[in-house]
């Protein structure tokens, strides 16, 4: 029984296809026509009550099935009309209902219904579906970047990020399918006109030739059943077309269509009162329906006044709750000069904070917890997540206001020196501009501080329209937190001190005391361990697996004491960690080097008394930089950081060279990627392209 239920839809589609071939009894056709109408009503109501389109993700396939079902019934009814001049009680009843004794009026009404569906609803839904599919695909990189930003700041975890990424992919697939499914609705409307014409013309010919009826009787009889058949098919088709338009226009909503319409209409009492006043003005004009206009105007004005009074009462209650309590004035602080008379207090000025953030006066509400500021709590969440991901505990971020910088500005300092700054507008939203926006949104042009994306500061009332146009909209708090977290990640290796290194070793001693006793500091000095850990953090490699790091370093110390070579050995030992860090769904998308380029890079390695360094030819450097710059947009479209894949021999030297030109480029070696990963090359750096450019230049 369960197997039959699981395959019921497949059996239903097969049966529907048989409707096109096998004749149906009249009573069964009546039942199926009623089922068709009922099914279309259910689908329409579902599209009006869902909160988002993915709640009804089967709609494109359902649209095809219902259209096929309706066409199958059309073919069966056409067979009966041409054969008997009668196609059941349902079609006859609808034909009598719409004609009401006048065939011409019936045809006109039927034609109007078909044109409304074909020209207004179907054509509009087709256009909306096409635009929705396009801007959904264009907005995918920005949405992916927003998810990464929330993940980096600790607002969501890996599981939530994976769910949101899957949702974005499903949305793109859904709107792409709807773009094609609307063509089915359009073709169904055209087919309805063709079948109606076939029923009428074919019925008249068969009635006159085969049944010997006169032209008046034939036209009357076949017109009624033709109109009834067309109406029975067009009524469900019209509701399905309306449902199609409904589901593709559900762009930005917090609830069902019913809830959103009531909420948004009742939020504008002034517009309702103004409409009532306009109707009163029309009622005073001569030769107008005074009674109808006056009744409707009175209803609108009374309703608007009631809504306005209710909103005013709610606002007063909210203001009463938010009224600040009377607090005692703080005692006067001691004079600054008296405080620094004590020399020991002067030494406090020499302290350098690891991470420091200064904010302007307008940004204090974001930081001050007594005023509802959430920035500090979000930083705590980020610190916890970063420790879990990278194995490094970010120091406390010291925050204070500053009168030196602008009121809307903030600066980020690492060990007392400014490394980043930005400016935000607290009462606005930041809209990240997509590659191909569907429309222009009013706002103040700026650049997103963390990733350098062209953006606009927009008013809150323009937020929904910006999202419709494909912009990714971010609140000011998330902008600041994303910038701070990205800055900390970039300078994490500078924040790793000798004290923190010793603390990491002491933490490992709890689980592996024998390893720590063997390694530190007898074999591996804390200074060397600090250098290796800094090298790993500098290139975004987690140092959480301290046991593997120490074991590998102990083994490598038997052959070399060069921190760079030891770091490469540690990276190879952390291959699973590196693979998880940079691979997604078992794939690594990266740029590769041509064999000739790799050979020339290896040949450029030079050794002296200070170690090995890279002495590359200028044309080779130019080829690398130029071609890498050409491939960078491909990674931006995929929403992932750019990766260059090389051999282990040259990895570290290329990484240091290219970091001067590409701050976000990660250079990995083949030996650092586990064998089960599928490598997908997004581009290949070759010497031929460089030679071709030189030839064109000459």
TrEMBL record:
Signal peptide: none annotated. Pfam families: FHIPEP. It comes from the Bacteria. GO terms for biological process: bacterial-type flagellum assembly; protein secretion. It is a multi-pass membrane protein. Gene3D superfamilies: FHIPEP family, domain 1, FHIPEP family, domain 3, FHIPEP family, domain 4. This is Flagellar biosynthesis protein FlhA. It comes from Acutalibacter muris. The gene is flhA.
